[in-house]
Amino acid sequence: STEELINEVYALRRQVVTLTEALRSQTALTTAANSHCTIRGRVNGELRTRLENSRKKTNRGGSTKVKGRFLTHPELMAAHKKEYEEHVTKKATEEKRIQKDHRSEEMEAHIRCDGVSKTFELPLSSYKRKDELCTIARALGLAEDGKMTVISLTASIRAHLTENELILQKDPCFSGLFSNKRR
């Protein structure tokens, strides 16, 4: 009967509440045990460090610093200075190259993503940056070379839009490229 089913649902609900409380209690106990173990591990590490430090021989004879000067021939100093400057220049150049590569990889990923999913709502004349034009070229399926200039990219895109005007004006992704007004 319905009353028995209702009573059974209530009994099951009480069991769920009881099990949930038991789970919370067990979770709290586990968290406390983990915290205790973490604290114990840190204390053990500190004690181990202290023990190792106490077993080391200490230098009680004073400083072992040598108080002296090195004399270097001027030609050797000049050679060292030149090598050091070359090293610094080479390192700076390498860092700039790595940074440039990283920026170009980010830009390429952005162009790949936008080339597939972006809707171009502004007219072509609104897009001035090279990465924007590369995105449009990629979306149109044009072979864009990273070495192309903004002017050559714009000309290539404009030529493609002119050749395929009827098809692309119907496509909602590219229809904005044909509008004359800037928004």
Structure in words:
This protein is an all-alpha fold and 183 residues long. It has helices at 2-55, 74-117, 130-140, 150-163, 165-170. The model has no long low-confidence stretch (mean pLDDT 83).
SSE blueprint and pairings:
Blueprint: H1 2-55, H2 74-117, H3 130-140, H4 150-163, H5 165-170
Helix pairs in contact: 2-3, 3-4
Strand content: under 5%
The radius of gyration is 36 Å
- Cα(first) to Cα(last) distance is 69 Å
Low-pLDDT stretches are none
Task: Output the helix-strand order.
Answer: HHHHH
Largest sheet: none
- Overall outline: flat
Mean pLDDT figure: 83
Helix content: over 70%
Instruction: Please tally the helical runs, counting DSSP H or I stretches of 4 or more residues.
Output: 5
Oligomer: single chain
Indicate the structural class. Answer: mainly alpha
User: How many individual β-strands?
Assistant: 0
A few lines on this structure:
The chain is mainly α. It is built from five helices and no strands. The radius of gyration is 36 Å and the shape is flat.
